[in-house]
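User: Modeling request: complex.
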Amino acid sequence: MTHLLPRSLVGQLLLLVALMLMLAQGVNSFLLYRGAQNQNLVESSTAAVSRVAFGLDRQASDRPERRNGGMRARRWGRLKFGPDSAVTDTMPRLPELEMRAGQAFANMGIGFSEIRVTFTSDLPTAMTGHLIGANRGEWRNNPINRSMGGRPAPTGTRGFVIISAQQADGRWVSIASVVRQRTPMLVRTLLFQTITIYLLMLIPLILLGRYISRPLKSLTARAHAFQPGETEELPEQGPPDTRELIRAFNAMSSRVSHMVNEKDVMLGAIGHDLRTPLAALRVRVESVEDDIERERMIAGIEDIDHMLDDILSLARLGRSGEQADPVDIRSLIETIVDEFTDLGHEVHYQRGEKQSAMVRETLIRRALRNLIGNAILYGSSAHISVEKSGDRLLIHVNDNGPGIAEAKIESMFEPFLRGEGSRNRATGGSGLGLTLARAIARDHGGDIILKNREKGGLRATLALPLG
Amino acid sequence: MAHKIHILLVDDEASLREPLADYLIRQGYKVQQASDASIARSLLNAYDFDIILLDIMMPGEDGLSLCRFVTDKTEIPVIFISAKTEETERIIGLELGADDYITKPFSPRELVARIKVVLRRAEKGGGRQVATSGGGYLFSGWTLRCDKRSLVDSDGVAISLSTGEYQMLLALVSRAGKVLNRDQLLDITQGREAHAFDRAVDNQISRLRRKIEADPKNPEIIKTVWGGGYLLAGEVKSL
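Assistant: Request completed. Predicted assembly structure:
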């Protein structure tokens, strides 16, 4: 469901405004509709009041031959006089109209002891022939309508208002009046209005949306592509809130760059300046008489050297002077595998097809060397295979070691952390191997993925983008 | 009594220079020490040296400039001693005329071994390893670039080579058409890397073939000569 909704800021804004506009128009129309209905009622009850006043006036002028007959009276509908009210007690009353009618009669100097007004959708039999506005030929002359008692409203009629007033002598005078339906095409009008207003609002809305969202978009792109050391600032644009955000982002990225730079310079200096005293130590160690002791010292110095190597590489990463070139990955793997084979390790590689990728060769060699080194360290042998998956090249390094607890896999990439049970230095390695391998892979737009194999052992995958 | 090999050791770090000099003296060499390039120059005027061990990064005139001076004016072989950085790797890639290099921290025994190899090569009159800078070779659809130490195929895709493989290929390509026996190949390529000592020439050749031959079992580029050794067949163009 959610995927049907627009994802962009402008899209959501437009949708929201459309919905709110529709709602507002709906409420508006409902109120209009109610008003129109009420207006119709008032109109027909006013006609009824006039008819009553007129009729009583005629009666008072005492021209009996025309009292209940005559063309006009017939057209207008005859007043109904009787001992009972046409508006029975069971009918719903309309107090507001009763009040209006009372005032109207009072204004004309006619006094009633009681006035009843009701609205009904079917005309009661008793009121047949006492109806105003029923003079439309087809309805009046229709035999069915004539014969029928309670009659349904003709088309365009919503129902009838019946006014019944009690005269001073206790008799009731009653008249019914047609209430017309005068609220057609409401939905169409609503839609038309809404769309017109919406279209008018659309242009400024889109402009506003772009004004807000464009700087955000470029900020997002910049944040995604952020590389420490970038000096170019993102131009401040958009509304003040966004400008403030961009300003904050610029300040933050310059702080990050500064910190990363400081760290790299520091690491580089440490790595470099430690080499000379280390070299001096290495020379002096040769004069140690005890062979075993000397070999241990040499191994210790070599450990430190490897660690420095890794630290330096990590520090230099991302500012490497080496260009990415198309390199044949098969031969690269062979070169590394040969290195390990020459040192007497068991590394298998099923030679596949030639496959080139854009890489910085010395770095990728290093990453691969670290992965294979780990496989040998923890699993005694390594099996390498290459797989093409979409736009990525996957280099799998499988071992037959104990694997890693799922929960710990991500933490394996943290610097100076080793796999469980091998925390002692005897296993060798700098503790930076995976950290460096991942940093190198990510520097290439790829990644390192660790996964326990179903048949046991670990699979370390170096994923590289192709093309 | 045999002539004592005379070594000039140039390094600004006394903490390394002094114990190293002591070690070399104990190994039977005669050693003069210089803490910067100007002292080294005056010592060069005063004595006849057999070999120079030179630190690249020194205050004042650096090792590279001194090396250029030495290789231009004299026949004395030079071994660079350097902390491994990207910069030195690149410079060494350019082969500015040094005969070998070793990175700190190094095994003094390995240094001595390399001194011996370099001296033996100089003595044989082989001179320096192919002095190339920025050049390269075109052969059988391949381009061997010396500046980047890389082998590129006709599509511009680089083939990864180990240092030993690169040296071996360079030796064969630069002497194309000539039969080189195993001893000659070892001599030319050795000393560049510690591993090269252990590696059989045949092994290197078969690895090279696997990488550059269309069918490694029937090699068309690197041919085996019966009883002799190997030769690089086909036309070679110098760049």
